[in-house]
Amino acid sequence: MSSKNLSVLILTHRADPLFTQVLQSAHFAEFLLIADYQSGNDWKKLRQELGRNTRNLRVFPQAKKQIQDFAAARNELIQKAESDWIFFLDSDEVLPPEAEEILNLCKEKNNYCLYKVSRHDVFHGKTLHFGESWHDQPIRFARKDSLRFTGAVHEIAKVQKNQKIGHLDFSLQHFSHKNLTEFFAAIDQYCQIESQTRYQKAPTKQQILKELFLLPPLKFILNYFFRLGFCDGFAGFAYAIMMSLHSLLLRIYLYEKYFIA
């Protein structure tokens, strides 16, 4: 089945052995558009490994190493797409084999302009079935003229009032963090960017301190107990701890910007 008029868009900022698998999972797209934030990927080697599947691979080198505004980065890459339909795939996500057929059916029916997709985290070699990540359903597939993102970090798609959203009948595998060291590094980066955004909204010292002491433990209780994170064993426990740490670090960085820096 043809997958013409579809571009898969990817932002990448690091070299990862998994990236070949990511690209292979999206081989059916008419175009693969990649914004490369000095990832260190060996593109010549990747093209050799993928063979004919890279005939429409287009790489756009970026001057910066780190992405400071994820929504702006996504929106910029959207403008480079020539297809009417686009699918955003993260550099640590893998599409399932059935994705090609389902995406083509959605294009043909044209019932919606935006589509959500379920995303299941794989952490410590285990697919998580509970906790915060299990509820993750970002908008990734859309008509090009209908998709724009907002938010410097943890960016989300803009949805117009009364706009209906479809749901794709498959799930992405998200190999987000190989270990706790990588997990912490990602959290640290996101918190620094997000704290700058929050700083511009001028929260009060009282508000920051209140959130600092209340939100991290509450987030752990929510994810580990109410969202049944404990059912995922040690991986679920570690994930709940790290997401709680995310809440803590964000408020610490915000406090530093206001009252220490």
In sequence order, what are the helices and strands, one letter per element? EHEHEHEEHEEEEEEHHH
Radius of gyration of CA atoms, rounded to a whole number = 19 Å
The residue ranges in which pLDDT falls below 50 over 5 or more consecutive positions are none
Could you tell me the mean pLDDT? 93
Number of domains: 2
Shape: globular
- Secondary structure: number of strands: 11
Class from secondary-structure proportions: alpha/beta
Name of the CATH class of the largest domain: Alpha Beta
CATH domain topology of the largest domain: Spore Coat Polysaccharide Biosynthesis Protein SpsA, Chain A
CATH superfamily of the largest domain: Spore Coat Polysaccharide Biosynthesis Protein SpsA, Chain A
How helix-rich are the residues, as a percent range? 40-55%
List the helices and strands and how they pair.
Blueprint: E1 6-12, H1 19-25, E2 31-36, H2 43-50, E3 57-61, H3 70-80, E4 85-88, E5 93-94, H4 99-109, E6 114-123, E7 126-127, E8 139-143, E9 149-150, E10 156-157, E11 165-177, H5 180-199, H6 205-226, H7 233-259
Parallel strand pairs: 1-2, 1-4, 2-3, 6-11
Antiparallel strand pairs: 4-8, 5-11, 6-7, 6-8, 9-10
Helix pairs in contact: 5-7, 6-7
Task: Provide structural commentary.
With 261 residues, this protein is α/β, with parallel strands linked by helices. It has 2 domains: 6-177, Spore Coat Polysaccharide Biosynthesis Protein SpsA, Chain A, CATH 3.90.550.10; 180-259, no CATH class. Helices cover 41% and strands 22% of the residues. The protein is built from 7 helices and 11 strands. The strands form 2 sheets. Strands 1, 2, 3, 4, 5, 6, 7, 8 and 11 form a 9-stranded mixed β-sheet that branches. Strand 1, helix 1 and strand 2 (31-36) form a beta-alpha-beta unit. The mean pLDDT is 93.
